[in-house]
Task: inverse folding
């Protein structure tokens, strides 16, 4: 594993970063924001939060994509400020999925690989919180082994027509566009011949159907029935999409989002056990102390991985370690919730008996996805075994 | 927040890596071992050889500054703090170092609380006077709950029975810690005195653990004892737990390194066993857990050096490292196959020593139970900050 550049270990934020955190918290604590977040948590089944007003308000201040250049709607800060925003949104119960997809994944990919025209066209709208984007990678029969994808980009004139089906993506129904991986060239080298396209989703030839799931937010089932793509819609180089995807997944795999969710869920369990007076006598007390240590350790791994990405030298193995650790830990926290809280853990946030801002029940339903999304735990272990330990696979 | 080593930590690591390098590690691993086979004459000769090897390593550690590392600058020390000490402790654990250094660091830290009154003995420690710690009367005592001792009315002598005292013959002094009605007290006594007798335990680690008997032993000083007990002892113990946790992380790393190497050389079904996912994934999991726990330990050291109450992070870090050590040596022996059970294989040394070192400063369950009340307090403190996390809970 490569060791990032050595600087003083400092687990504090700089005064500027602390100030940023303080200001973000100030906004997120406002009554109107908390009311909007609470409404989002209590939406009826089959409804889910889309572009919230709080995104627009964060966007107005340049905070939503704080690490982007000013010309694209950010403040030119670093990934550290971006991670602070993510942690605080989650800690304050603000739905973060649209934001993470739009800014951290799609926006990052456009920032890294987009042409000036592409950036000008798409980034400001995402940064303002008035537009959203999604990722179209997985297919009915393709997930971990993305190189086996069946979606094809068939040449036509100067461009391509996309044909295929994308599944298990999220927020496509509120997104303006998606990043779609499709095969442009048949190749003996599995990872060559894939191209990433920027696909406008309100286009003839793109059909979006909901695929309802266990979690509050639906999957999209997208049929690509031949929308026409041109060279201007290609992100990065034709046939070199694998490189784009690898870089983009690195940030997602720092696990900042999941460590923050693990912390939120664990704090909810400890708070509940403290509140009902069972913490001291709980047979699970020791387990909570252990999980608290694991959540903290995962946070350190995530921030360490984030540091390598911020330095422009993303350590993909370290990212894989962080992603594996925080997702497995968050899943363990969720698994313990009914032991600690009893059947209160079964009450949805909508139930009138649930404590305010109750995240425990939805956390349980979210948990299996933690170790599946953005690369399964098994994919992470495979990467760690082969790269960090040097074991042949 | 930057999660990486400081320049000072990197320097300490490089300095001591000279001693704990790949060539020397195999002999250091076995230097604590006393011979158990062969004739009495051979055993006696080997015992002399083992003592000589221990003495040479001790001298080298002192020359490289190990005994000065923690001492404040006013005592001629390096003032490297817990953050510096954990780097060294980790290296020592990797090599399975057996000797009085970690005990001596505890004694030095306590003596430093007495200020100039102990300046002369602190200087002796800096020069290489080792101070083993005698804390246990019963097998379940530990540093936080030391066994009782009897103090003469004039406070000039003590009577005590102590077991599981490390490397008694290597010590210039002994620090005998006893539980009293007013709290823990520590007595510094001479090691060589007619009132001091000891015998070697026959134990699983085959290292230097002794049973000790003190009868009317003169007390040279009562460090940090203004009111008949040591107010600093809990803090000293918290710091010692962090260093011991770092030692355990090193032990885990040493065992993992052996297992990874063995998984490449042990063949079954015509393949090295690392080609099979079951062992490869288990090793990848352990590597990740070690990396996470390593940073938790380093963060606890950072907490301690920042003047924060380190009792919770210290106990959490130690409990995590201890559980991990138990799991790691079991998995590492398994990867070795039957060869791992033989005297020829070094992994059995890790397995033996882990049985003791895992609970040396308190068993994981006891540690977690001890700090459980601090967990809810930490949660409240987090939510009291101007930038609350998890405000919705």
Result:
């Amino acid at each position: 594993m490569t060791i990032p550049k050595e600087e003083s270990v400092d687990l504090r934020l700089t005064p500027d970063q602390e100030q940023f955190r303080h200001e973000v918290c100030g906004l997120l604590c406002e009554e109107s924001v908390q009311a909007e977040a609470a409404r989002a948590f209590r939406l009826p089944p089959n409804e889910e939060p889309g572009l919230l007003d709080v995104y627009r308000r964060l966007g107005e201040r340049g905070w939503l994509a704080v690490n982007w250049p000013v010309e694209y709607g950010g403040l030119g800060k670093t990934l550290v400020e971006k991670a602070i925003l993510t942690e605080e949104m989650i800690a304050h119960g603000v739905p973060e999925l649209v934001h993470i997809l739009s800014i951290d994944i799609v926006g990052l990919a456009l920032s890294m690989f987009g042409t000036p025209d592409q950036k000008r066209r798409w980034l400001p709208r995402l940064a303002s919180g008035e537009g959203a984007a999604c990722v179209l990678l997985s297919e009915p029969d393709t997930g971990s082994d993305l190189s086996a994808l069946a979606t094809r980009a068939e040449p036509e004139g100067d461009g391509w027509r996309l044909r295929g089906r994308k599944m298990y993506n999220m927020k496509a129904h509120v997104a303006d566009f998606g990043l779609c991986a499709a095969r442009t060239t048949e190749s003996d080298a599995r990872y060559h011949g894939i191209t990433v396209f920027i696909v406008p989703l309100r286009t003839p030839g793109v059909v979006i159907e909901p695929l309802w799931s266990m979690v509050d937010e639906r999957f999209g089932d997208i049929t690509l029935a031949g929308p026409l793509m041109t060279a201007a819609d290609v992100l990065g180089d034709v046939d070199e999409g694998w490189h784009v995807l690898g870089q983009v997944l690195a940030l997602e795999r720092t696990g900042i989002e999941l460590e923050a969710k693990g912390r939120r869920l664990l704090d909810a369990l400890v708070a509940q056990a403290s509140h009902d007076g069972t913490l001291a006598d709980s047979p699970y007390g020791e387990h909570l102390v252990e999980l608290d240590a694991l959540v903290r350790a995962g946070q350190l791994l995530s921030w360490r991985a984030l540091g390598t990405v911020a330095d422009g030298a993303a350590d993909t193995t370290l990212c894989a370690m962080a992603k594996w650790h925080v997702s497995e830990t968050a899943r363990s926290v969720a698994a313990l919730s009914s032991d600690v809280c009893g059947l209160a853990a079964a009450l949805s946030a909508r139930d009138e008996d649930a404590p305010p801002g109750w995240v425990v029940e939805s956390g349980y339903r979210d948990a299996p996805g933690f170790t599946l999304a953005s690369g399964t735990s098994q994919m992470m272990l495979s990467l760690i075994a082969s790269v960090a330990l040097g074991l042949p696979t | 927040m930057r999660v990486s080593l400081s320049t000072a930590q990197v320097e300490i690591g490089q300095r001591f890596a000279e001693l704990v390098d790949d060539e020397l590690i195999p002999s250091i691993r076995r230097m604590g071992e006393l011979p158990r086979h062969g004739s009495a004459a051979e055993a006696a000769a080997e015992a002399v050889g083992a003592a000589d090897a221990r003495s040479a390593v001790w001298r080298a550690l002192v020359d490289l500054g190990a005994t000065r590392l923690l001492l404040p600058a006013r005592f001629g020390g390096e003032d490297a703090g817990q953050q510096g000490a954990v780097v060294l402790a980790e290296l020592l654990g990797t090599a399975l170092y057996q000797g009085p250094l970690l005990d001596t660091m505890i004694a030095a830290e306590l003596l430093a609380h007495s200020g100039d009154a102990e300046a002369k003995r602190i200087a002796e420690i800096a020069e290489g006077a080792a101070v083993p710690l005698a804390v246990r009367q019963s097998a379940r005592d530990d540093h936080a709950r030391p066994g009782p001792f009897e103090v003469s009315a004039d406070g000039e002598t003590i009577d005590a029975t102590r077991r599981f005292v490390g490397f008694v013959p290597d010590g210039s002094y002994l620090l005998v810690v006893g539980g009293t009605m007013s709290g823990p007290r520590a007595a510094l006594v001479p090691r060589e005195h007619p009132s001091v007798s000891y015998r070697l335990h026959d134990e699983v680690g085959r290292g230097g653990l002794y049973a000790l008997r003190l009868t009317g032993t003169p007390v040279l000083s009562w460090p940090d004892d203004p009111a008949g007990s040591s107010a600093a002892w809990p803090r000293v113990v918290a710091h010692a737990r962090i260093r011991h946790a770092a030692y355990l992380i090193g032990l885990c790393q040493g065992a993992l390194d052996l297992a990874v190497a063995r998984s490449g050389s042990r063949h079954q079904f015509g393949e090295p066993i690392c080609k099979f996912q079951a062992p490869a994934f288990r090793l990848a999991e352990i590597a990740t857990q070690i990396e996470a726990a390593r940073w938790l330990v380093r963060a606890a050291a950072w907490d301690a050096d920042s003047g924060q109450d380190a009792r919770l992070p210290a106990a959490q870090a130690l409990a995590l490292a201890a559980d991990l050590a138990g799991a790691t040596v079991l998995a590492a022996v398994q990867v070795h196959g039957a060869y791992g059970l033989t005297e020829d294989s070094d992994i059995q040394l890790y397995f033996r020593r882990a049985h003791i070192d895992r609970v040396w400063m308190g068993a994981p369950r006891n540690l977690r139970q001890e700090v459980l009340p601090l967990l809810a307090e930490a949660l409240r403190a987090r939510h009291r900050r101007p930038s609350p996390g998890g405000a919705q809970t």
Chain A touches chain B through 71 residues (CB under 8 Å). Confidence is low (pLDDT under 50) at residues 1-8 of chain A. The first strand of chain A starts at residue 133 and ends at 136.
